Amino acid sequence: GEGLPRPEQTRVMVVANQKGGVGKTTTTVNLAASLALHGARVLVIDLDPQGNASTALGIDHHAEVPSIYDVLVESKPLAEVVQPVPDVEGLFCAPATIDLAGAEIELVSLVARESRLERAIQAYEQPLDYILIDCPPSLGLLTVNALVAGQEVLIPIQCEYYALEGLGQLLRNVDLVRGHLNPGLHVSTILLTMYDGRTRLASQVAEEVRSHFGEEVLRTSIPRSVRISEAPSYGQTVLTYDPGSSGALSYLEAAREIALRGVGISYDASQAHVGA
Ligand code: ADP
Ligand code: MG
């Protein structure tokens, strides 16, 4: 793919929204693959016990596989659980296995329980441009670990009724973590997902989100696309499953926008490859 400016330091982006089914995992894996296709080195950390991001990236994550659970609970070095993603140069994944479901409880009694992921990332020596963390649909200790480890929060918002409901709670948690544990944390990116431009509802929600958040909302939105929802069952992102589809092009464009913003270049939507 075309080269994009690389960040000076690794950008650690936390993909969070405590609502399920809004497109966190889909966004994490497809954005990560897009950034890698643009030439970046990218690590996906799967922090959801469901392991959907691992599945979508074609990464083995049965119970015996070394996983992010071992990193968080057993202090295993991150480098020992990271696997290369087949077919996408520069893309890596730290998988989640089912044990992670217990970590939420096991972490409670551990030292520095909120900053175990941060420490693991700091000790990881491979050069990376981006780390994308796929959070579970809750605001428990796993998500707190992600918020402590990251600099940026990326919130996918589904263009549906009640899109903004519950976001207040996430934003308050971001404020709490910023105030106590991670002063640099901020919501940098809002991405509208499953956007259906033919419905009035979608455009009304989009307008509401834009007036509420302003600059953080990417110009590029992700359309509802069957190809996007089919890809995970083949252990692929839409970028390899159907590279020419509107879903693939929109994630490539969102990645371009994120990369340009990160180095302070304003994004020109008129040069977009797909409708923004
Ligand atoms: P979350 O991680 O927030 O729970 P997912 O990324 O798993 O959400 O998405 C929820 C469901 O919606 C999945 O079945 C996924 O395939 C589907 N989906 C996500 N984004 C799109 C899209 N742009 N078009 C069509 N289906 C989508
Ligand atoms: Mg998910």
Q: Would you count the extended β strands for me?
A: 7
Structural class by SSE content:
alpha/beta
Portion of residues in beta strands equals: 5-15%
What global shape is seen?
globular
CATH overall fold name: Rossmann fold
Biggest beta sheet attributes? 7 strands, mixed
The first-level CATH class is given as Alpha Beta
Gyration radius, in Å: 17 Å
Any idea what the CATH architecture is? 3-Layer(aba) Sandwich
* Total count of domains: 1
Mean pLDDT: 94
Helix content estimate: 25-40%
Bound molecules: adenosine-5'-diphosphate, magnesium ion
CATH homologous superfamily, by name? P-loop containing nucleotide triphosphate hydrolases
List the secondary-structure elements in sequence, H or E: EHEHHEEHHEHEHEHHHH
Low-confidence stretches: none
Terminal CA distance reads 20 Å
What does this structure look like?
- With 276 residues, the protein is an alpha/beta fold.
- The protein is 37% helix and 13% strand.
- It has a seven-stranded mixed beta sheet with strand order 3-4-2-5-1-6-7, sandwiched between helices.
- Strand 3 and strand 4 form a beta hairpin.
- The structure holds adenosine-5'-diphosphate (ADP) and magnesium ion.
- Residues 20-26, 52, 137, 193-194, 222, 224-225, 228-229, 247 line the site of adenosine-5'-diphosphate.
- Adenosine-5'-diphosphate binds next to helix 1 and helix 9.
Topology:
Blueprint: E1 11-15, H1 24-37, E2 42-46, H2 52-56, H3 68-74, E3 83-84, E4 91-94, H4 100-106, H5 116-122, E5 130-134, H6 141-149, E6 152-158, H7 167-180, E7 186-193, H8 200-213, H9 226-230, H10 238-241, H11 246-262
Parallel strand pairs: 1-5, 1-6, 2-4, 2-5, 6-7
Antiparallel strand pairs: 3-4
Helix pairs in contact: 1-11, 5-6
The structure holds adenosine-5'-diphosphate and magnesium ion.
The site of adenosine-5'-diphosphate has 17 residues, from helix 1 and helix 9.
